[in-house]
Specification:
two-stranded antiparallel sheet, 155 residues, elongated
């Protein structure tokens, strides 16, 4: 009598669909240590589930929801640090024309301003008490340190 051979166990292919604590820890570690969103992380790390799956986990798994919220708070600090790095980078503020004349590289400065403004806005949404502007009624809002650094870029 011939016994059927067992099929060799195949490795799972594709993105994970079921939540595991190990995957939740990994996702939160990536979120808290980079300024990237879930779409970018999923592109950079193919072993991660897609954004919709992660969001589903956030809604269905209370422990992951809390862990992810903490990771986003830590990400706000990363974004603020990136603002400082971008504002301090003057390496491409000057360019030279074909005759060797020094010119202001307005395109680079404008891109740096956009990068800082985007990170500043995102940080203010993630941690409004720390990075947001909160004006009292009738009182003008003082410039934040980040806004003062942005002003440095255009001067």
């Amino acid at each position: 009598m011939v016994t059927p051979k067992k099929k060799p166990e195949s490795k799972k292919v594709g993105r994970p669909l079921e939540y595991t604590q190990e995957m939740g820890d990994y996702i939160c570690e990536l979120v808290s240590s980079t300024g990237y969103g879930l779409l970018k992380l999923a592109k950079l790390f193919p072993e991660l589930p897609d954004k919709m799956t992660i969001n589903r986990w956030r809604h269905r798994v209370p422990e992951f929801r809390a862990q992810y919220a903490q990771a986003k708070i830590e990400q706000a600090d990363i974004l603020a640090e990136e603002c400082l790095e971008i504002a301090d980078d003057d390496s491409q503020d000057v360019k030279f024309d074909k005759d060797g004349n020094e010119l202001c590289n307005t395109e680079f400065i404008a891109r740096a301003r956009l990068r800082v403004d985007t990170r500043k806005w995102l940080a203010s949404k993630l941690l409004p008490k720390q990075y947001g502007q909160q004006a009292e009624e009738g009182k003008p809002v003082d410039k934040t340190m980040i806004e003062m650094l942005i002003d440095k870029l255009v001067d």
